[in-house]
Amino acid sequence: MNEDFSKKIDKNNIPTHIAIIMDGNGRWAKSKFLPRTVGHKAGVEIIREVVKECSNLGVKYLTLYAFSTENWKRPKLEVDTLMGLLVKYLKNEAKELHQNNVKVTAIGFTDALPELCRVELENIKELTANNTGVNLNLALNYGSRSDIKNALIDIVNDSKSGKLDISDIDDNTLKNYLSTKSIPDPDLLIRTSGEQRLSNFLLWEVAYSEFYFADIHWPDFNKFELQKAIYTYQNRDRRFGGLK
């Protein structure tokens, strides 16, 4: 039975930014003797519930690891299914997300996505650009190492051209060259399916994030599990390397 943590949560201590590694769709399907593609379809349904609960709780930013740069290595049928589900989600959810004041953005090398994905992504970004509710940030064809590498290349080039003085480079400099420059670092990182690794996700940004590992697969995640993760986060002592 799902425990309702909504009354236990301190509404004045809601994490500003939650990042989620949505893991376990394939294993969820396998456990039910179903094709992996069915697991991905079930996972899409959970996104709707989680976005809605984040809106209800007052979370400002929600970043979802939807497709990594490494996911291209998966079987073509699975990749094609994921791209198709992305198109369907963006197209079908656009109106409701807009009505609920959700702003949709994306990080990653989206130029490499199939054309239909790029079109629907640009459509929903344009439609929701002025919304002021939760910022749903989709990590698509995203890899943190590549993002950091590209940031360093840009810093070197700008230094050579005189746009940037190398003596002025600090942590904020690199932050401002990353694809995540316009959003705050995550307060809480959630990963489902029981795995406890980052998988090349927001390596720079999660330096002081609180981690929460759920022992259930993503299709079994729901608003109650999200509440539980936030409640656990609120009972952590965040010191950011200092003392309290």
Structure overview:
With 244 residues, this protein is of the alpha/beta class. 42% of the residues lie in helices and 14% in strands. It is built from seven helices and six strands, in the order E-H-H-E-H-E-H-E-H-H-E-E-H. The protein has helices at residues 25-31, 36-57, 76-99, 115-128, 144-161, 171-175, 223-234; strands spanning 17-21, 61-68, 103-107, 135-142, 188-191, 210-213. Strands 3-4-2-1-5-6 form a six-stranded parallel sheet, with helices on both faces. Helix 1 packs across helix 2. The protein is globular.
Distance between the termini: 37 Å
The major pleated sheet works out as: 6 strands, parallel
Strand order of the largest sheet: 3-4-2-1-5-6
Give start-end ranges of low-pLDDT stretches.
none
Roughly how much helix do the residues carry, as a percent range?
Answer: 40-55%
Helices and strands, in order, run as EHHEHEHEHHEEH
- With helices defined by DSSP (H or I, 4 residues minimum), what is the helix count? 7
